[in-house]
Task: structure prediction
Amino acid sequence: MNAPNPALPDSSRDKLRKRLYAVAAIVALLGLADGIYLTVEHLTGRTAECIASSGCQDVLSSKYAAMGPVPLAALGAFAYFTAFSAALLAAFGSRKSGTFLALVVGMMFATTLWLLYLQAYVLHAFCDYCLFSAGVTTVLAALVITNALLRERRTPSN
Result:
């Protein structure tokens, strides 16, 4: 029997949640751009040039960079597009889309942790674009968690 946070009225909480979903949609577009860029680079056989690290080629040409013929970046682009779509629908009031967004971002975050492990402990190399994607996913996860904490807690009706 948790009551809503009295410090934030329901209408203010709803507006804040919608704004957070809108921010999540914009953040997801950044990840989508990263995923599309890496997919194009992979499919054309070009090498993405790293700015801050020297391990892009090692990471992007490893056996972990694709699942069969599908570049992992393409799957990431699809996940970011899905997150963008769900966040946008949630910003316009769809509760189911907010729940779906949380599920998608949870899977993305788990995948991100796995890929960071691979870069650090298996490949011993890091890719700037992969690290950017990890940062974007982490921001999305923080937005989803914040939104969940703001969700109205309903008491069961008798």
